[in-house]
Design a protein that fits this description.
Oligomer: single chain
Number of helices: 7
Order of helices and strands: HHHHHHH
Distance between the termini: 28 Å
Structural class: mainly alpha
Number of domains: 1
Radius of gyration: 16 Å
Number of strands: 0
Helix content: 55-70%
C-alpha cells in the first residue's frame, strides 16, 4: 500500500462511492477502511466468507461493499498514478499526489472543477473498475453501478 496521502485520496473517493452505492455502510466506513488499509487481503476475504445464503435463497448476512469499493478505487488510483507518472518528469513524485488529488476534485478538501480526463480515459477507468469488481465476485449489475459511480465521481463536482 502506498503512502498516507494516497490512502487519503483512496478513502475520500471510496467514501463518495459508498455514499452512492451503499449509503447504509457509511456509519462504519471509517472502521472498515482502516481494516482494509491495514490488511486489504483479509478485509476482502472476510467479505467473501459472508456470501453464504440459506437453502431457500434468503441471505443470512448481507456482505459489505466497502472493501470492494476500496479495492476498486485503489486499482483506479494506481492506474491513474501510473498514467500521470508517465507524463511527468522523473523526480516529481510530490506532484503526482497533488495531480491525483486534483483529478478527484479535492485540491484543498473542497469541491473543484470536474476532472480533466478525456472520454477515452474515463472509459478506461470504468473498465478497470468494472473488471476489478467482477474479479471480486460482485454481480454484474452491481459491478456496473459501482464502476459508473467511480467515473461519476471523476466528472461531477462534489456538492457537499
Amino acid at each position: 500500500m502506498a503512502d498516507q496521502a494516497e490512502r487519503d485520496i483512496i478513502a475520500e473517493m471510496s467514501r463518495d462511492v459508498v455514499a452512492e452505492v451503499a449509503p447504509d455502510e457509511l456509519p462504519l466506513f471509517g472502521m472498515n477502511s482502516t481494516a482494509y488499509f491495514k490488511n486489504p487481503k483479509k478485509a476482502l476475504e472476510s467479505r467473501e466468507g459472508q456470501d453464504d445464503t440459506l437453502g431457500f435463497g434468503i441471505e443470512l448476512v448481507v456482505p459489505l461493499l466497502t472493501p470492494i469499493v476500496l479495492a476498486v478505487v485503489t486499482d483506479v488510483i494506481n492506474h491513474l498514478e501510473q498514467t500521470l507518472s508517465s507524463h511527468l518528469a522523473s523526480g516529481a513524485e510530490g506532484a503526482i499526489s497533488g495531480r491525483l488529488r486534483s483529478v478527484f476534485k479535492r485540491p484543498d478538501g473542497g469541491a473543484a472543477a470536474p476532472a480533466q480526463l478525456s472520454p477515452a480515459q474515463l472509459a478506461e477507468v470504468r473498465d478497470i473498475a468494472f473488471r476489478k469488481a467482477r474479479q471480486l465476485k460482485l454481480p454484474e449489475t452491481q459491478a456496473a453501478m459501482l464502476a459508473d459511480s467511480v467515473v461519476g465521481g471523476l466528472v461531477v463536482p462534489k456538492t457537499s
